[in-house]
Design goal:
Blueprint lengths: L7 H13 L1 H11 L20 H10 L4 E10 L10 H10 L12 H4 L6 E10 L3 E7 L4 E7 L2 E6 L4 E6 L3 H5 L6 H9 L6 E11 L2 E10 L6 E9 L5 E8 L7 E9 L17 E4 H4 L12 H15 L8 E3 L6 E5 L8 H4 L1 H10 E6 L2 E7 L4 E5 L3 E5 L3 H10 L2
Parallel strand pairs: 6-12
Antiparallel strand pairs: 1-2, 1-11, 2-3, 3-4, 4-5, 5-6, 7-8, 8-9, 9-10, 10-11, 13-14, 14-18, 15-16, 16-17, 17-18
Length: about 400
C-alpha cells in the first residue's frame, strides 16, 4: 500500500472520490448491522419447561460453551438493487477512496467478509477456547478461511491464492474478529435491549437437532425499520443457535443466520493449523496500513453511531469529529457533518454508476433543506445537499424528522 499522501491536492481528490462511494459506505453500514441480528428457529416445537425472558437472558449470559464445530447458513436480503455490471465501477471508486488504493490483499478479512452483505452463504465454524477459532466461507469453486491460532491471525483466499497475516492484537482489533459462535451475535443484539424494547419468550423449536427456546426482541417505538429479532437458544447449553431479523415493512427476513449442523466436541488441534501454500502471495498486517481498513460493525445504538462516524468519515476522506446522536433506543439517528457538498445526482455522475445512484436514492425536502435518502430494508441514510449525514435503522420519514430537528 502506498504511503499516505497529505498534500492539499490529494486531499481534495480523495474527498471528491468519496462523494461517489457513499452508497458503498451505506452498504458497509448495513453489513455491519449483521452484528445486531438474531432469529427464528428451524422446525418442531419440543415440550420444554417454562422460562421467563429475564431468566433466558441470564442463561445466555452464563453460557460457557467454548468448544464447537458446525455449519452455519446465512441469508441476507437488504433489498439492494442488482449491481449487475457495476462491480467494476464501484470497485474503481472504492479503490480511489482512502485506504482503497487497489493494492490490498484479497485475503484481508475486513474486505472479504463484507461479501456476506448479500445473498446466501454457507460457513464452517470451529472454536476451541478464546485463542483458537476458524471461520470458512464456502464458495462455488473456492473457499475463504479466517483462522485465529494463539497470537496469529491468518486469512486465506483460495481463489486468488493470497494470504493475509497479522497478530491477534492487531488484526483482531482491526478486523473485528468475526464472531466464532452465534452467541457473539446474540450478545451484541441484547445490548440494544432497554426501556424502548419488548423482550418475550415465544415458544420452542429445534435447530440443528437441538431443542431450543425462542427469545423475541421487538422495538416498542414506531419509526424503526426493525420489526422483530428472534434468538433460538439451546435448552441445555444456553448457547444461541440461530438468528433472524424481520423488517417492520414485512416480507422475508433481512438476515437469517443459524446452525444447520453442530457438535460440541473439541475440534482436532490441526483444524487451526495454517501454513501458507507454496506460491501464495503473503501480505503482512504492517504492509496494509491502518487507513480505511476497519469495517463497520456496530453492536448497539452507541456503537452504531461510532460505526457510522468511522465509515462515512473514511468515505469522505475526512477526520470524523463532531459526531452526535439524535433520539433514543431503536430510533437513534447518527449525525455527521462532512463539511463538504452532498451526494451528486445520477445525471452528474453519468453512466452505470449514475444509474445506480439514482436507483438507490430518493430526493427529499424539509425544514433542513433538501437531500438524498439512500435506503436498504434495514439501514437508511439521508445525505443533505450541504453535506450532513443522518443515518440509522429508521424510516425515511424518521430521518427527515431528525434532520429538521437538527437545524
Amino acid at each position: 500500500m502506498a504511503p499516505y499522501e497529505s498534500d492539499e491536492s490529494t486531499t481534495v481528490r480523495r474527498r471528491k472520490a468519496g462523494r461517489y462511494v457513499v452508497p458503498v459506505a451505506v452498504v458497509g453500514v448495513a453489513a455491519g448491522t449483521i452484528g445486531l441480528v438474531p432469529a427464528l428457529a428451524d422446525s418442531g416445537s419440543p415440550d420444554l419447561p417454562k422460562i421467563t425472558a429475564q431468566q433466558l437472558i441470564q442463561k445466555i449470559a452464563e453460557s460457557d460453551v467454548e468448544r464447537l464445530s458446525g455449519t452455519v447458513k446465512i441469508t441476507t436480503d437488504l433489498g439492494l438493487p442488482d449491481l449487475g455490471g457495476l462491480e467494476g465501477a464501484l470497485g474503481g471508486a472504492a479503490a480511489t477512496a482512502p485506504g482503497g488504493d487497489g493494492d490490498g490483499s484479497a485475503a484481508d478479512p475486513s474486505a472479504k467478509l463484507t461479501e456476506l452483505v448479500t445473498g446466501t452463504h454457507t460457513l464452517r465454524v470451529a472454536a476451541d477456547g478464546p485463542d483458537r477459532q476458524k471461520l470458512s466461507v464456502l464458495e462455488n469453486a473456492a473457499e475463504y478461511s479466517l483462522i485465529h491460532n494463539g497470537k496469529d491471525v491468518w486469512g486465506y483466499d483460495s481463489a486468488s491464492n493470497e494470504v493475509f497475516h497479522g497478530t491477534a492484537d492487531e488484526a483482531g482489533e482491526r478486523a473485528g474478529e468475526p464472531p466464532a459462535t452465534p452467541k457473539d451475535f446474540a450478545e451484541q443484539a441484547l445490548k440494544a435491549v432497554d426501556d424502548t424494547t419488548s423482550v418475550t419468550v415465544d415458544g420452542t423449536a429445534q435447530v440443528a437437532g437441538r431443542d431450543a427456546y425462542k427469545l423475541v426482541i421487538e422495538p416498542k417505538q414506531s419509526g424503526s425499520t426493525v420489526g422483530a429479532i428472534t434468538i433460538a437458544v439451546d435448552a441445555k447449553t444456553w448457547m444461541p443457535l440461530k438468528f433472524t431479523l424481520t423488517p417492520a415493512s414485512g416480507g422475508a427476513a433481512v438476515v437469517d443466520a443459524g446452525f444447520t449442523q453442530l457438535s460440541y466436541a473439541r475440534p482436532a488441534a490441526s483444524t487451526f493449523d495454517f501454513t501458507p501454500p507454496k506460491g501464495a502471495k503473503v501480505t503482512e498486517e504492517s504492509e496494509e496500513g491502518e487507513a480505511g481498513r476497519q469495517p463497520i460493525a456496530p453492536t448497539d445504538e452507541a456503537d452504531l453511531a461510532k460505526g457510522l462516524e468511522k465509515g462515512f468519515g473514511e468515505a469522505f476522506g475526512q477526520d470524523s469529529e463532531g459526531m452526535k446522536v439524535i433520539g433514543e433506543g431503536w430510533n437513534s439517528v447518527a449525525v455527521f457533518d462532512t463539511g463538504g457538498p452532498g451526494v451528486p445526482s445520477g445525471d452528474e455522475v453519468g453512466g452505470d454508476l449514475g444509474g445506480f445512484l439514482d436507483s438507490l436514492g430518493d430526493q427529499v425536502k424539509g425544514d433542513f433543506g433538501s437531500g438524498t435518502v439512500f435506503k436498504t430494508r434495514l439501514i437508511n441514510a439521508l445525505i443533505t445537499d450541504d453535506g450532513k449525514i443522518y443515518a440509522g435503522a429508521v424510516t425515511q420519514e424518521a430521518l427527515v424528522k431528525a434532520a429538521d430537528a437538527g437545524q
